[in-house]
Amino acid sequence: ARFELWARQIIVDASANDVGGITGDVATMEWTRDRFTHILDPADVTRINAHLLELQGSVADKDPAAAREEAASLRNTIAHLSRPS
To answer: How many CA atoms lie within 13 Å of 45's alpha carbon, on the beta-carbon side?
Structure first.
């Protein structure tokens, strides 16, 4: 749930054109990811990592619109994760 909240925060920061905020959000998501991916299916981990790489690229390009779109896509991925038994 915390991971999904950070994805929402990226959308908020991107809407405000706050690239610094997005940068911090992505870094926090990377740390948060490391706390729960061990319980996920490896394919889901790969999908999450791909989203984070895209978000890093958006930060490097200083492109809040791309970050907003990618964060929305990441939220969709999160919503469809395989839940551990």
So the answer is: 12
